[in-house]
């Protein structure tokens, strides 16, 4: 079948892609799995089902989901403003969106802790209303939201820019009001990009470590995320235990990303694109 | 419904898109807004639709001021050059859109909507595509769906912006005839924008010729073709030989050709530009007699016409001549000396003043 291809180099490019992903992704993951499996089934299960581990999964994935959802909504809003309106400082605002990409996450964590801590600008007011952010799960959500923001904005922005004005004009001439136009014409066109942004932002949040350790306080069962638990196992030279937890994260992440991909495929199918 | 526009002006920055345009569109007629790209015809259409607002002037629907009525309330059906179909909806949902966004009280029942959508799809002869998505249709099919969608809300006016501009020549030709027949069936006041004079001539009841934001001429296709009001119209509608010369005493001398010019009765000659249609020139064999001596440079048969290119030797001017031809051998051969005789011409002063 490769003999009469119009685009040449199929064999070479596939070979290279396979080699590359093997070296960078599959082999390290296999090593991780091997290390985890070396524990034996019973010990493995004991490690991954330990209440402290289970609490950390819930927190890690729960906080990541909440953060990705927040980013989904506000990322769309930011993208909308950046695409639809012209205002002074727009370029600067546009560049600022990428900052969470560039900033070392530890710096972000320290900055957020300073803001939301007991004596911080936000923290002192929030605390007086009985709302604790730093050293609480809410703080984790704040940190994960911060680092995930660019994903939704940057995936939605180009799609929004590419949407023809005529679509909205057509909807208006057919009698649709602004909300109906947004809800029935614009939003469905943005769904695939929104899902991509959501998935990226979520995946990034699950793997995040640097910014969270500062703001979460790292209390076992309460504000301890799985990556941190893995790290503390490593510090105790429990490499196999760390690998086992890593494998669990991997499985959860993979299942969730697969589900999001499935959603995306479904939404693309719905427009007959296949 | 009749539409009137009065003294419309619209500028984009320093660009004058519309410069004092006043027009009346009668109820039930199909009018073409024709002109070169950037002449303001689309802006005029969009102002009538309510997708754009004029800097000054008024738009009247059946005598009522609608200048600043929102497009939503205007009751117009608008068809876009690039269809603007909703890609995530089926053909059925696209056509139903205008009905389903109505407030609950005015919304027809589900069955009623389905019935109306299918009736419209039958009207555009695409009932069998109801479950497809726009991406699965050809350009011509998409434009017909866009038209069905616009008609679904029972608009008072149908506005089409270069409706066939994105289609290939063959489909465009089919759709032209189809649009004409559809209009004859529905009798809805329709205005369409085009830069294709052939399209306008073939489809429209009346043509509005626009150039640089101003109306050059309004009339039926015949009127516009037979009596162009300005050099621009001559240049834009049909082919014409453009010749420079001088006029005096009711006659013009154009590169050796003598044509009547009753507007130029004065005695001293004035510079003029004359326009002669290729089929308004007769050729006679031989080099003696009426007309001016020319030499045949090229002969080509195009359909039922013979296109002869001739050159006037002294002024070195080329002329295009079109003769009816009904088979057989060509009456003229390349290199042959013949005489050219204009039988109709139109002369305009070259400085713009008579």
TrEMBL record, chain A:
The chain crosses the membrane at residues 12-37, 57-83, 95-117, 129-153, 185-206, 239-260. Keywords: Membrane, Sulfate transport, Transmembrane, Transmembrane helix, Transport. The keyword Ribonucleoprotein does not apply. Its main location: membrane. The keyword Transmembrane helix applies. Residues 57-260 form the ABC transmembrane type-1 domain. Pfam families: BPD_transp_1. SUPFAM superfamilies: MetI-like (SSF161098). It is found in: Cell membrane. PROSITE patterns: ABC_TM1. Signal peptide: none annotated. InterPro entries: CysT_permease, MetI-like, MetI-like_sf, Sulph_transpt2. It is a multi-pass membrane protein. PANTHER family: SULFATE TRANSPORT SYSTEM PERMEASE PROTEIN, SULFATE TRANSPORT SYSTEM PERMEASE PROTEIN CYST. Part of the ABC transporter complex (TC 3.A.1.6.1) involved in sulfate/thiosulfate import. Part of the ABC transporter complex CysAWTP (TC 3.A.1.6.1) involved in sulfate/thiosulfate import. Probably responsible for the translocation of the substrate across the membrane. The complex is composed of two ATP-binding proteins (CysA), two transmembrane proteins (CysT and CysW) and a solute-binding protein (CysP). Belongs to the binding-protein-dependent transport system permease family. CysTW subfamily. This is Sulfate transport system permease protein CysT. It comes from Alloalcanivorax balearicus MACL04.
TrEMBL record, chain B:
GO terms for molecular function: ATP binding. Residues 3-237 form the ABC transporter domain. It holds the Pfam family ABC_tran. Keywords: ATP-binding, Nucleotide-binding, Sulfate transport, Translocase, Transport. InterPro entries: AAA+_ATPase, ABC_SmlMolc_Importer, ABC_transporter-like_ATP-bd, ABC_transporter-like_CS, CysA_C, Mo/tungstate-bd_C_term_dom, P-loop_NTPase, Sulph_transpt1. PROSITE patterns: ABC_TRANSPORTER_1, ABC_TRANSPORTER_2. It comes from the Bacteria. This is Sulfate/thiosulfate import ATP-binding protein cysA 2. The lineage of its organism: Bacteria, Pseudomonadati, Pseudomonadota, Gammaproteobacteria, Oceanospirillales.
């Amino acid at each position: 079948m490769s003999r009469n291809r119009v685009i040449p180099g199929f064999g070479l490019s596939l070979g290279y892609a396979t080699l590359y992903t093997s070296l960078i992704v599959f082999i390290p993951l296999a090593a991780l799995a091997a290390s985890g499996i070396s524990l034996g089934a019973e010990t493995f299960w004991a490690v991954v089902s330990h209440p402290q581990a289970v609490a950390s999964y819930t927190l890690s994935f729960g906080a990541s989901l909440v953060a990705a959802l927040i980013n989904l909504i506000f990322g769309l809003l930011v993208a909308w403003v950046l695409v639809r309106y012209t205002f002074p400082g727009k370029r600067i605002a546009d560049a600022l969106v990428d900052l969470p990409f560039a900033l070392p996450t530890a710096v972000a964590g320290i900055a957020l802790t300073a803001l939301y801590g007991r004596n911080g600008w936000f923290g002192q007011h929030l605390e007086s209303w009985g709302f604790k952010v730093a050293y609480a799960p809410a703080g984790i959500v704040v940190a994960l939201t911060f680092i995930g923001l660019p994903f939704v904005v940057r995936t939605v922005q180009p799609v929004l820019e590419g949407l023809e004005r005529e679509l909205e004009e057509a909807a208006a001439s057919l009698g649709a009001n602004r909300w109906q136009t947004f809800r029935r014409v614009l939003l469905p066109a943005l769904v695939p990009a929104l899902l991509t942004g959501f998935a990226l932002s979520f995946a990034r949040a699950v793997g995040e470590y640097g910014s969270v350790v500062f703001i979460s306080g790292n209390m076992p069962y309460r504000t301890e995320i799985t990556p941190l638990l893995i790290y503390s196992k490593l510090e105790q030279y429990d490499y196999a235990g760390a690998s086992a937890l890593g494998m669990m994260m991997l499985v959860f992440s993979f299942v969730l990303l697969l589900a999001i991909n499935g959603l995306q495929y479904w939404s693309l199918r719905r427009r007959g694109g296949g | 419904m009749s539409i009137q526009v009065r003294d419309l002006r619209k500028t984009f920055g320093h660009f004058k898109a519309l410069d004092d345009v006043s027009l009346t569109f009668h109820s039930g007629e199909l009018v073409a807004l024709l002109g070169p790209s950037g002449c303001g015809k689309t802006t005029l259409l969009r102002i009538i639709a309510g997708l754009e607002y004029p800097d000054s002037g008024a738009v009247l629907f059946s005598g009522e001021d609608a200048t600043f009525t929102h497009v939503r309330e205007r009751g117009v059906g608008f068809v876009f050059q690039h269809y603007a179909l909703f890609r995530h909806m089926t053909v059925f949902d696209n056509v139903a859109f205008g009905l389903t966004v109505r407030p609950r009280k005015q919304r027809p029942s589900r069955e009623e909507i389905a019935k109306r959508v299918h009736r419209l799809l039958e009207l555009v002869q695409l009932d069998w595509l109801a479950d497809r998505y726009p991406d699965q249709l050809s350009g011509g099919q998409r434009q017909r769906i866009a038209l069905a969608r616009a008609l679904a809300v029972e608009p008072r006016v149908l506005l089409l912006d270069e409706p066939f501009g994105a289609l290939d020549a063959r489909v465009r030709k089919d759709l032209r005839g189809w649009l004409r027949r559809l209009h004859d069936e529905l009798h809805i006041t329709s205005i369409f924008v085009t830069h294709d004079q052939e399209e306008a001539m073939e489809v429209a009841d009346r043509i509005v010729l626009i150039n640089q934001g101003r109306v050059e001429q309004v009339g039926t296709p015949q009127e516009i073709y037979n009596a162009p009001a300005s050099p621009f119209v001559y240049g834009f509608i049909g082919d014409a030989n453009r010749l420079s010369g001088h006029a005096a005493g009711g006659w013009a001398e154009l590169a050796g050709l003598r044509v009547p010019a009753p507007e130029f009765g004065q005695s001293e000659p004035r510079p003029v530009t004359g326009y002669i249609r290729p089929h308004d020139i007769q050729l006679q064999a031989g080099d003696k007699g009426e007309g001016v001596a020319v030499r045949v440079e090229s002969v080509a048969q195009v359909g039922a016409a013979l296109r002869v290119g001739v050159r006037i030797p002294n002024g070195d001017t080329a002329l295009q001549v079109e003769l009816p031809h009904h088979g057989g051998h060509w009456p003229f051969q390349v290199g042959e000396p013949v005489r050219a005789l204009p039988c109709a011409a139109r002369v305009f002063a070259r400085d713009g003043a008579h």
